[in-house]
Amino acid sequence: MIKMKLKKELNALDVFSIVAGAMISSGIFILPGLAYAKTGPSLFLSYFLSGLINITVLLAAVELVTAMPKAGADYFFIMRGLGPAIGTIMGFLSWLSIALKSSFALIGIAEFGNVYLNLNFHIVGLIFATIFTILNIIGIKEAGRTQVFLTLTLLFIMFFYILTGISKININYFHNFAPRGIIPIFTTAGFVFVSYGGLIKSLSIAEEVKDPKKNIPLGILGAFFVVVTVYVLTSFVVVGTLDGPKLKNSLTPLSDSAFQFLGKKGIVIISIGAFLAFVTTANAGIMASARALYALSKDKLIPKTFEKIHPKFGTPYVTIIITYIFIVITLFIRLESIVKVASTFTILNYIFINLAFIVIKESKLINYKPTFKAPLYPFLPIIGIIGLIFILAEMGNETLIASLVIISISILIYLFFGRLNVNRESALILLVSKITSKELKHRFLEEELKEIIRESENIKEDEVDRVFKNSIIFDLKQKINYRTLFKIISEEISKRLKIPSKEIYNLFLKREKENSTVISSKIAIPHIVIRGKNKFILIITRALKGVYFSKKYPSVNAIFFIVGSKDKRNLHLKTIAAIAQIWQYSDFEKKWSLAKNNEDIKDLLLLSERKREL
């Protein structure tokens, strides 16, 4: 049976549109009225503060996804960082939080259909949920292209509203700026947190992105800064153009605001924008949330049925259909409950992403190779965790009870199903092992990261890679001089190639006297040609305390011994060139010293960035 894979068909613009589209929806078209009632004219600060908290997890998530561009990205990070038990909990919370945001958007669509066309609320929601589900089953590319068009049109409308309305602001509407004090500004930031709910969840489509290490950072960072700007400016304009009593009782605040300075055409324009926002969020939400269940199934934490990929369309159709059923059910739940529960689930998920990020970073995984590095580590993730816990504490008992129910169900699923099928290590185990100086029996996480890198960077094994795989590694614990090292290596080569060790030793000495094989202060490549045919061997020596070669080079840490017969001349030269090329990268020397064992040293070479001849 051929195992189906997700298709890589999304580019940076697709990622931007999916992320931005997943965020801009009811969070700005409906929530400002409800939020204004809680905090007053300082509303725009709540949106800004909520955005600041999101930065702490965004930067961590972008770094993680450039190292691990896999389906169900936020769940995937937590699972690999904190283990399968917490991974199961967060997988379900991830799925539910973004699915609830989609429900929130579909309720917005249904409300518009009910108000303007007098259509049945539930029928409208059901129809659109069905359309988006079919679109997502047909293909990620089609869903992505639809998202690009809808999102760009929506952003055009939002900036038109901002630029037109900012000149009509009545400064008097900002008097009594924080009528209930400072604390409600922060608690309201938690209430509107769902507005950013699609930010990290959209990374669930990471496995379907072309060149993910480039396109995902470009797409998600661009989308975040554009959306934060839109939220802050839009909430500022809506407060400045609509008087307080009207605003706090409005479920269509932007339409009511636009009517003040554009008349009826303002209502039409904003209604079109709101409809597009609801559509983009619902579409992106189904797209992203289904991948969380898919990732849980791939890790054997839920039944294998959820892992099925459509043979024609290459999409996880089973999890898309299950997400559809859940969303349809939630159309019958009270709006404010959906907002609070979705925000709470998102906050919990973000706390654990930051925790997983810290654990993964501190575990010093040799195959953890992100192309984007989050700044101000570890301060930002720690600040983020503290801020998120503060907001979570203010969310109320209703949402905490809902969270406990989901967590309890997730734990039961793990205990009675996942635990029986999964035996994998996490970065947390590696970190504990590092602290307690215990050896691990397995390298599951390192091996998985290695395969992720090979897949995402499309690394094809060449002749030199095979040399690295078959190499012999010596990890010296004491400082010695090069002559002593040459003797040790000559004896090892003699055993393997059946050539007298003295002959090999003399060839190494002769080569060193003719021209030093040290190519920098830290690396040397002693290489000799021996008699015979079809003979080739690479012995890698790591000497963290250094090997003394000369006064100029008193402490060389990496020595690559290359020995080959004349008929292996081309491979000889290719291997020297590859080693020299690999060593030039800025972080290689650091990772060389951090490698925990021989497998780590080989992985450093096998996953290196270099020109490969296939």
Write a structural description.
- This protein is mainly α.
- Helices cover 66% and strands 6% of the residues.
- It folds into two domains: 12-421, Amino acid/polyamine transporter I, CATH 1.20.1740; 461-606, Mannitol-specific EII, Chain A.
- It contains 26 helices and six strands.
- Strands 1, 2, 3, 4, 5 and 6 form a six-stranded mixed beta sheet that branches.
- Strand 5 and strand 6 form a beta hairpin.
- The longest helix has 35 residues, at 264-298.
- It is elongated, with a radius of gyration of 29 Å.
- The two termini are 29 Å apart.
Features:
single chain, 614 residues, mainly alpha, Amino acid/polyamine transporter I, 26 helices, elongated
Compile the SSE list and pairings.
Elements: H1 12-23, H2 26-29, H3 31-39, H4 43-67, H5 73-82, H6 84-117, H7 121-138, H8 140-165, H9 183-191, H10 198-201, H11 212-241, H12 244-248, H13 253-262, H14 264-298, H15 317-330, H16 335-362, H17 379-393, H18 397-421, H19 427-436, H20 444-456, H21 463-469, E1 472-476, E2 480-481, H22 482-497, H23 501-514, E3 523-524, E4 527-530, E5 536-548, E6 556-565, H24 569-583, H25 588-594, H26 598-606
Parallel strand pairs: 1-5, 2-5, 3-6, 4-6
Antiparallel strand pairs: 5-6
Helix pairs in contact: 1-8, 1-11, 1-14, 4-9, 4-11, 4-16, 4-17, 5-6, 5-16, 6-7, 6-14, 6-15, 6-16, 6-18, 7-14, 7-15, 8-11, 8-14, 11-13, 13-14, 14-15, 16-17, 16-18, 22-23
